[in-house]
């Protein structure tokens, strides 16, 4: 089971939209998928519309035992191949730092339990929709994840926000989770004809090189329409939806490639070879993060 954490530093950038778009692309590929809703707002859970459960992800983070995990998982309304690890408002109480940092590893323990004793057909992909902050819930997701996808918008604050997030991701990788790999920085809600948006995307690429995904998610009304109907973007019938669906297919392919590359690097004795597209950032944490992507 490949696990990707989808995160952002602020609300309103469409992080949950991206998590659900990746889930829709995985569903179109026939990939058995689990979406874990760590955001106390619960928007991913609401859109995937699972039946009521006896437990939620908040209970799993307190008690990461298989019996609790199974009670917190339900099939989504999208497909029986897409399940939800159900979110709840109570997660907000678990987002503040606590005296026992070992509890941040409970999500990783829970996913390990699922790998060891899967519910029917094993999950091939787990998508963790994080809250819009770098609190304990997001750090728990990074400790549990194989890859981290940072979602941003093309605004004047994008570079500074991505810098802080990537440094935090690198810190988690160094201290807790050496298998964590970059999935990249994904620009969402891009207006292609906007000079300001194009300028900000180039600014991101100058700072972070290949960490910025070559494709961006365009700003289309179809996203809100599909979410409002609790429908996968791949099943929404409009030209805008088709454009976005193709983009999410490419994002998912990039995530899966980063997983294969990560396994190759772990098994290879050859040193990483820098790329011409490698980031020239002056920040060591960001350079180290990029080296994993370009190796």
Number of strands: 7
* Strand and helix order: EHEHHHEEHEHEHEHHHH
The name of the CATH superfamily reads: P-loop containing nucleotide triphosphate hydrolases
Query: What is the CATH architecture descriptor?
Result: 3-Layer(aba) Sandwich
Q: Could you name the ranges where pLDDT drops below 50 across 5 or more consecutive residues?
A: 261-290
CATH domain fold name: Rossmann fold
Share of helix, binned:
40-55%
Region (Disordered): 263-284
InterPro entries: AAA_dom, DNA_Partitioning_ATPase, P-loop_NTPase
Domain AAA: 1-180
Organism: Saccharomonospora amisosensis
Structure description:
- This protein has 295 residues and is α/β, with parallel strands linked by helices.
- It has one domain: P-loop containing nucleotide triphosphate hydrolases (Rossmann fold).
- Helix content is 45%, strand content 12%.
- The protein is built from 11 helices and 7 strands.
- A 7-stranded mixed beta sheet has the order 3-4-2-5-1-6-7, sandwiched between helices.
- The longest helix has 29 residues, at 239-267.
